[in-house]
Structures are given as structure tokens and as C-alpha cells.
Design brief:
The chain has 297 residues and is of the alpha/beta class. It contains ten helices and seven strands. The protein has two domains: 176 residues, Vaccinia Virus protein VP39 (Rossmann fold, 3-Layer(aba) Sandwich), CATH 3.40.50.150; 116 residues.
Length: 297
């Protein structure tokens, strides 16, 4: 399946849509793709030559549920997502999504790989496009003002047909496996370079974009954890494997990187990159991707 690139349908703090083309120029055509911190999946969706095996994961059950639901029933998700920006709806849906009424949803998302909730998915993607910065479903965002300063974020863009957009994502992700849990669950050799579905010379690409290790930064992820050092160590342990191409995202000067890794620095300006206080805006200027030695030059 060639040239099936699709734009991600919701904004996300730390999203890599601006550098997705650079990532794929280093990965090239691969047979197996792993993304343990899915977010908006902007990188996977931007691949012009989708891999025959694709596995993604996110600990945030709302993200995993959206992709499960839109793969299963994009029209059903669109029914709940297709409504105008309304401040009263924003507050009410926020409260419902994080209420005790949805507690069973989180349990089922982590225990049943086939479970999804259409209304939950539709209201969640509607809200992340209608809310300010990283406030959606965070406590400080309960009474925040909707996004009013732009023509529209995500599905609220003025030129988008939501149902058509979701149908394109369904087609693109029809065979993508979506896990919901700890990132290590999809990083075993049997999923990555030793996958039984791969031939002897076939390559695995791993895109690592964890919450960045930085003391004192604002809390912007719904599922917070300090996993960057563990992710860094996995990358260092597997970087010299000729069957794996790794991209590790982080802030410059976080941890030492071997000299045979390529460093690509960029500035994430605008949008959610400027969320938070002064420190958050400064960090937007220090984004870095390190490519392992076996990536293409």
C-alpha cells in the first residue's frame, strides 16, 4: 500500500507531525513498525509506504480507545464527534469523561483488546480539538475557555468532513494492532526484530517518543511517568542491532548519546508546543531526535 499518508485528526502536546517526513527519510521502507507512545500517531500516519506489521501502544486509554473505535466504526465515532464548539458542552463532557461513571471503561480498555466505546471516543476527540492547550481532561481544564483564537483545531478545522476523515484513518489503520498499557509490553524481541512474520533480512523501525525526562516541567500528559531513562537504555541496548532502526525523541543534553548516532535538532513552534509556563516555551526550542547507527543517512 503506497502513498497512503493521512493527517492526524487531533492536536497533541509533543506531536511530531512537523518532522514525520524526516523520520521516514531515516527509516526508509521497513517491514515492521513499533510505536510504544502513540499520541496522535502523526508519524505512523505519515508513512508513505506502510509496513506489513504495525504495532502501537499508549497507556492513555482515551487515545487507545479512539483508535480502536475509529478502526471498528468510524461513522459511529463521527456521530458523537461532529458537533460545534460549545463551552457548556466542553465542561459537561469533560466532567463525564473523568467521572466515576466511566471507571469500568478504563478497566475494560486495559483488559479486553477488542473493547471500545464510541461515545467516549467521539466526545474525547471533539474535546481535545475544542480545548485550550493541554487542558483537556486535566483537573485545571474543568472550567477552561474553549479554543477561540484559531479557525479550528483538529476536527474543528473549517474545511474537514469528519466522517470522510475518519473513514480514511480506518482504511489506513485496518491492520494496525493497538495496545493499551505499559510501553514495555510491545518491546519484546518477538514483537520487534525477532517477529515470526519477518524474513531474515527484513527491518524493524522503532519510534520512541516518551514523556521527556525534565525536572520541573509542567504536567501536560494525562498519564504521567518518568520513563525516559528506561526508554533511553532500551535504545542504547539495541542501537547496534542491524535489524533495527531506532528514532529516540527528547530534549538536547538530557543524556549522553554515542557518537555514531545521528542528532537532528528542530524547533517545535506554535500550537501545543508553547503550552505551559516559560520553561515549556523554552523547551520547544530544544527538541531533538537521535537516529541509531543503522538508520539511513
Amino acid at each position: 500500500m503506497k502513498n497512503k499518508k493521512v493527517k492526524s485528526c487531533f492536536p497533541f502536546f509533543g506531536g511530531k507531525s512537523r518532522v514525520a517526513e524526516t523520520v521516514w527519510s531515516r527509516f526508509g521502507e521497513v517491514s515492521n513498525y513499533i510505536e510504544p507512545f502513540a499520541g496522535s500517531l502523526a508519524v505512523l500516519l505519515a508513512n508513505p509506504s506502510p509496513a506489513k506489521i504495525e504495532t502501537v501502544n499508549d497507556k492513555n486509554c482515551f487515545i487507545a480507545n479512539f483508535f480502536r473505535a475509529v478502526i471498528a466504526d468510524p461513522v459511529g465515532v463521527a456521530k458523537y464527534a461532529d458537533s460545534p464548539v460549545n463551552e457548556a458542552d466542553l465542561h459537561a463532557r469533560h466532567k463525564w469523561l473523568v467521572s466515576d461513571a466511566t471507571a469500568e471503561f478504563k478497566v475494560l480498555m486495559h483488559s479486553d483488546p477488542d473493547y471500545y466505546d464510541l461515545k467516549n471516543a467521539g466526545w474525547w476527540v471533539w474535546g481535545i480539538g475544542a480545548s485550550m492547550g493541554s487542558s483537556w481532561l486535566n483537573p485545571h481544564g474543568v472550567n477552561s475557555l474553549p479554543m477561540l483564537s484559531t479557525a479550528g483545531n483538529g476536527i474543528h478545522g473549517l474545511t474537514y468532513d469528519i466522517t470522510e476523515w475518519f473513514l480514511k484513518i480506518q482504511e489506513r489503520m485496518r491492520r494496525v494492532r493497538v495496545a493499551c498499557g505499559d510501553w514495555t509490553r510491545i518491546m519484546s524481541p518477538s514483537v520487534t526484530f525477532a517477529n515470526k512474520g519477518l524474513g531474515e533480512k527484513e527491518i524493524t523501525a522503532v519510534f520512541l517518543d516518551p514523556p521527556y525526562h525534565l525536572k520541573g516541567r509542567d504536567k501536560v500528559y494525562l498519564e504521567e511517568s518518568d520513563v525516559f531513562k528506561d526508554v533511553y537504555q532500551w535504545a542504547m541496548d539495541h542501537g547496534n542491532n542491524p535489524k533495527i532502526r531506532i528514532a529516540l525523541c527528547g530534549y538536547e543534553n538530557d543524556l549522553p548519546i554515542p557518537s555514531d548516532w545521528e542528532t537532528f535538532s528542530w524547533k517545535a513552534n506554535g500550537g501545543f508546543a508553547n503550552a505551559g509556563e516559560t520553561r515549556g516555551r523554552q523547551n520547544a526550542m530544544k527538541e531533538t531526535i537521535w537516529f541509531s547507527p543503522h538508520c539511513l543517512k
